[in-house]
Write a structure and sequence with these properties.
Distance between the termini: 23 Å
Helix content: 55-70%
Number of helices: 14
Strand content: under 5%
Shape: globular
Order of helices and strands: HHHHHHHHHHHHHH
Amino acid sequence: MRISEAGLPRRAGRRFLLALLGLVMAGAGPTAALDAAVRTPVPAATGYRNAREAMRTGMRDYNAGDKEGAARALEYAAGQGHALALWKLGRMYAEGDGVPHDDLKAFEFFSKIADENADEGPEAPNAGVVASAFTALGRYFLDGIKGSYVRSNVERAYDMFNYAATYYGDPNAQYNLARLYLDGTGVTQDPRQAARWFNLAAEKGHPAAQALLGQLLINGQGVTVQRARGLAWLTLARDAADGPKDQWIVTLQEQAMAAANERDRAEAQSQVDGFYRRSAKGR
C-alpha cells in the first residue's frame, strides 16, 4: 500500500491559511491575547545583540543544564519573533522542562508561530517548526485546556492536523489525523482513511503509526489482510520503541509474532531488512 500525499496545493493560498489561523484566534475570549509575550514579558536588560545570538545562548545554556538561563535567553529571542525559540519555549512549558508546566503558555507560543508564519511554505527553513506548532495546537484543541479560554473543539483540531499533514507532510500530524479517522473522533469513522494516513507517517519512521498500521494490516481493518506486512511494520515499530511509554508497541508486536506462522515471520523479516536497506541508501 503506497500512497502519495494529497491535499492542498504546494503553495497554500494566504487567504486559506489566514482563515485557518482565524480558527486559532477564535479560541480566545474577547480580551485574551494569544501573544505569549503578553504573559511572559522579556526582561528589559538582555545583553544580546540580536535574536540569533540569544537563541544560540539559550540552546547552549539548555544543553549545559541551565534551563532557567536558557528560558531567559529564549524569551528574548521569542520576543523578536524567532520561530525556533518560540517552539522550544512552547515545548518547555508543555513538558514542564526547566520551567513550570503551563499548557496555556505553550498554546500561546505555538499560536504565535502559526500567526507570524502565514507565508511559510513547505520548503522554507522554518517549515518543520511551523508544522509542529500546528500539530501541537491540534492536540490542545482536542481536549481543551482546563481553566482557560481554550475549549475542546474537535473541528479545529481536525483543521490543524489536516493542514500540517497535507501541506507540510508532518508525520506527527498524519498520525493524529489517522487516529481521528480510526476512532471516529469528530469525523465519520473510516479505517481506510486511517490506514492511508498511518501509512504516510509510517514510511517516515513514526513508531506509533507503524504499530497501528501493522495492526490494521493483520486484522484487515480498512485494508486487505497482509499479515506478513503487518508484522513487519510492528517489528519496525518495536525496534524504534522508546522506553515505558511505548510498551504497548512491544506488547502488540509480541502478540502478533506469537500468532504468526513461520512463513509470515520469514517474509516479515525480509521486509524489515528491505526497509532498513532503503533507509540507509536515502541517507
